[in-house]
Structure formats: structure tokens, C-alpha cells
Amino acid sequence: MAGTILCFGDSNTYGYDPRSYLGERYPAEVRWTDRLARATGCEVLNAGQNGREVPGSAVLPETNLLIVMLGDNDLLQHPHFTAGDVAARMERFLAGLSRSPSSILLLSPPPLRPGAWVTEERLLRESAALSVHYGALARRLGIAFGDTSGWDIPLLFDGVHFSPEGHQRFAGHLVRLLAERFPEGL
Questions:
Q1: Domain for residue 186, yes or no?
Q2: Cα–Cα distances in Å, from 166 out to 32, 105, 124, 141, 159?
Q3: pTM of the predicted model, to two decimals?
Q4: Number of domains into which the chain is organized
Q5: How far apart are CA 186 and CA 180, in angstroms?
């Protein structure tokens, strides 16, 4: 597999380490985006940003593949939002991109777990429901979809951020998913 992959996401894409004092990142050898680059030989552009919600629009560089994984911050920051509301935001965002549907992979974020940042049943329920809504959205738009809800990604004490093992496991599952979805390469 060769080509360029743009990973557009939030703090889990960025590689935020919540154990750090000043909000630092995990080192490159830990982050799932860097593991993906090493495993595939692709150039992987990390466009993760702490706190990013699904944007109304964005100008993104042309790449062979765009991987989008967002939605948790929308639920965390807007107490009235449901998974359906977040999926509607995602649909507007994706429909506004000027790129081929065959070059987009939508990932549902791994479901939140009880933790320091996740203390409401609503967050657990709605984050788990994102995979169903995103799967339906991907079918409507004719784009590839990855349901991470069954990947059992280890999260840290906050119930939101990947542990180092979580980054490793996430990258491994994603590499397998890309090999299945794009057997001819990028």
C-alpha cells in the first residue's frame, strides 16, 4: 500500500496523553497515526486537534485517502446532543467535501467508558450509538466505514483517551481494515 493518508480527527488522532502535566502528546512510536504510517508505508498526515468537533466545513489537502474520526467532543460539549444530531453534523461536513466518495473512510470513535470525563449514562449510550448512525450515513453517501465499537480499545482514567496499548490496538485493527477495504492499495 502506498500513497498519502490524511487523518482528520480530535485528540485521539492528535495523540493527546491525558497523564501529562501540560497536555502533551504521546511520542511518535506510540501514536496510532505513526504506527499506521510504519505498517503501511504510506505518508500519513496527522490532522488531529484537541477538542475538535465535527466542523461545518473544512479545506483539506488532496490525498489518496481521508480518514475522519470525530463525534465524541460534540457529545461531551453539548449536553442535549444525541448520536443522531452528531451524525447529521457529520453528513453536512462530508457532503461539503470536494473529493471522491471512494477516497473517504469514516470511522466511528470507540465508545466512551465511565471515567473522570464520562460520568453520565447519556454519554455512554450516545457514544455507543454513533457506530449505528455513522454506518447508515456511510451507506447513504457511498463511502467506506469502519465500526470501531468492537475493537475493544483500552482507554485511560478519563474514559475518553486511548492508552498506549489503545493506540497499538487501534492501529492494528485499522491496518487490517484498510487491507480489506483497499486490497489494490491506495
A1: no
A2: 8, 20, 18, 29, 12
A3: 0.96
A4: 1
A5: 12
